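Batch manifest line 268
LIGAND: nicotinamide-adenine-dinucleotide
JOB: complex structure
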Amino acid sequence: MNDLSRFDLTGRKALVTGAAGGIGKASAIAMAKAGADVAVIDLKEEMGRETVEEILALGRKSIYIHCDVSDLEQVSEMVKEVVDTLGGLDIAHNNAGISGEPIPLMDEGAIDEWKKVMEVDLFSVFYCCREEAKYMIPQRYGKIVNTASMSGTIVNSMELGGVPVAGMAMISYATAKAGVKHLTKALAVELIQHNIYVNSISPGYIITPMTQIIQDTPEFLEVENRTTPIHRQGEAEEMAGGVLYLVSDASSYTTGHDLLMDGGHTVW
Ligand SMILES: NC(=O)c1ccc[n+]([C@@H]2O[C@H](COP(=O)([O-])OP(=O)(O)OC[C@H]3O[C@@H](n4cnc5c(N)ncnc54)[C@H](O)[C@@H]3O)[C@@H](O)[C@H]2O)c1
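JOB STATUS: finished
ARTIFACT:
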């Protein structure tokens, strides 16, 4: 066996949430290129179906499933449909998320915003992992990767003229993503007895639809590039190598790990 064969995903059945665009799409395509059949899970149907077309063109099986990952019932039905359609589930990348709104902490909407971000960015990951593990436990194999964020390690410096502007977008988002990291560690300990690996990735500043506001605001771009040792933002495709490592047998001694891919941002 040569070293690269351990990255091979031929015959593996995978699902990726939030795969209509951005990091999830790059992950789904990379897994398909490595040999996996990949289900595309999202709320954005048109873009999701485009990802499916790209996977089919690679000669793999694929399916789009419309699912709100913050709804346990929908998650349960979605995972069942993936298993029924692809014929199993070996790999899951729980990646869907939202950045939240920059509502000031003392505004009335702050409480609703807190609940929404917790449900979409944190509770959803728990629901997905639990439903996925139901199928992975009996087969004694599973590779789960959750998308956290470097915002689960640091609180981003989002200021204009020296005044913090992110408000609830950062308070709830950073808290939820720190939760994803720790949930990942706790689940890794719980599930390794079933030969199920659970890891997370923590992207830094990545160019995706989610960060359009940053592309459109020169002051934010300047701060991001100056405070990141690589001095540029990342591409979604630059996350895929890390995901491939964590979902393949190349990571056979790695569980409960959070892989920061942030251009060195958290080093400073
Ligand atoms: N872009 C960055 O700089 C960055 C940095 C760190 C972490 N992240 C995380 O990476 C993940 C992917 O984000 P992205 O940057 O690719 O953004 P994105 O907006 O392109 O992708 C997120 C996807 O999730 C989907 N989604 C949102 N809520 C959903 C729900 N309730 N149910 C199902 N699907 C839902 C969206 O439709 C979208 O396609 C997110 O969890 C995000 O928090 C992104």
